[in-house]
Write a structure and sequence with these properties.
The protein is about 45% helix and about 25% strand. It contains eleven helices and 13 strands. Helix 2 crosses helix 3. The chain binds alpha-D-galactopyranose.
Length: about 375
């Protein structure tokens, strides 16, 4: 990847820039809790996006995407927004940096990545973060704080890509640290690194390769449901800023005031907020069996209450349970993508073989298997 980027940069721009890298993420538990002010538990992974970048002294940003084999340029003004989605992410990062009073000048960039797209591994957050990080270093003497870099990526999704996401993906991509996952309180911004080396287990992702076209709007609808439920609860309990502040019994109080659908969404979120705390306790004890059991509970909630799973992911989850896998659940926003599985070393080969064979027989295409390593987030490469 590096050699290809460098070769292309040289041939397009006739010089050399600096290399930056950022990562996709996994999330152990805490799904759809971020925009509800709850906890998440992500870690950056060894799949990422690498970019070579150099300021060009002008007002124009010149970009080449190796993966799309496409060149795009834009000026640093709203009217110049590109139509290509991949370029809009970078445009959005520039605009959001400027809106916050940061500096951005013209630059040249070539980038490529190996984060599978649409698999729920946050390839878009990796793209936003690598550019937010580089712009901070190249134009702002690293004065923009790291949390703000994550927010720049999040606002890019909101304002330029139509997804009203939470902060988890961009946070993980910016703050990721090799060997550690991070528990983030999305309401206060407090976070803590937890070393994650589950001895005797492996973490493996199985990609259903299903991608739903309307995932963005379905995601936004989930968020709206949560906001309506929180507003109803707030009428009785004014201290409730987010759904994560609500007790389960408070949700029951408003059962007749909100739709059945909104009720189920909120029921899932309130349960999930508690599960993240239970997982933290279990991790402190090294009790991975409990972690795994909670992952299954999350899957159940995401499938039946939050309704962001699909037939393929439910199939993989059920198969994991049958094969004695410690924990398994749909990961990320849902509507396709991967399951994350915590599996004992001795069961690993059998599980992967069975999942691959049975999934292929049933759905007519093979799933993909990713062994992930918890890695560093946004950084400059030497
Ligand atoms: C997507 C969003 C995140 C988060 C997850 C679900 O990845 O970008 O903010 O809401 O879905 O946990």
């Amino acid at each position: 990847m590096k050699a290809k980027i460098q070769e292309k940069f040289k041939s397009l721009f006739g010089e050399e820039g600096q290399l930056f890298m950022s990562s996709g993420r996994i999330n152990l538990i805490g799904e759809h809790t971020d925009y509800n002010g709850g906890y998440v538990f992500p870690g950056a992974i060894n799949f990422g996006i690498m970019a070579e970048i150099k300021p060009n002294g002008g007002e124009v940003v010149k970009l080449f995407s190796i993966d799309f084999d496409e060149y795009v340029e834009f000026r640093l003004e709203e009217a110049s927004a590109p139509t290509q989605l991949w370029a809009r992410y970078i445009f959005g990062v520039c605009m959001e940096t400027l809106k916050r009073g940061g500096k951005v000048g013209g630059f040249n960039a070539v980038f490529a990545g190996d984060v599978p797209q649409g698999a729920g591994l946050s390839s878009s957050a990796a793209l936003e973060s690598v550019f937010a990080f580089a712009i901070n270093q190249l134009f702002n003497d690293n004065k923009i704080d790291k949390f703000e870099l994550a927010r720049i990526g999040q606002s890019t999704e909101h304002n330029y890509c139509g997804v009203k996401c939470g902060i988890m993906d961009q946070f993980a991509s910016v703050f990721g640290k090799k060997g550690s996952i991070m528990r983030l309180n999305c309401k206060t911004g407090e976070y803590k690194y937890f070393p994650f080396r589950p001895e005797g287990y492996r973490v493996v992702l199985i990609d259903s390769c299903v991608k739903h076209q309307l995932a963005g709007s379905a995601y936004n609808k989930r968020r709206e449901s949560c906001e309506r439920a929180a507003a109803a609860i707030r009428a009785n309990h004014p201290d409730v800023d987010f759904l994560s502040d609500a007790k389960r019994v408070w949700l029951d109080e408003v059962r007749d005031e909100i739709s059945q659908e909104d009720f189920l969404r909120a029921e899932y979120v309130i349960g999930e907020v508690q599960r993240v705390l239970d997982v933290s306790d279990a991790l402190e004890r090294g009790d991975y069996e409990t972690v795994g059991e909670l992952m299954y509970q999350t899957h159940f909630g995401l499938s039946r209450l939050y309704e962001v799973s699909c037939e393929e992911l439910d199939f993989l989850n059920k198969l994991a349970r049958r094969e004695g896998v410690t924990g398994s659940r749909v990961m990320g926003g849902g509507f396709g993508g991967c399951t994350i599985n915590l599996v004992k070393n001795e069961l690993y080969d059998n599980f992967i073989a069975k999942a691959t064979k049975e999934f292929t027989e049933k759905f007519g295409h093979a799933p993909k298997v990713y062994d992930v390593v918890i890695s560093d987030g946004a950084r400059q490469l030497q």
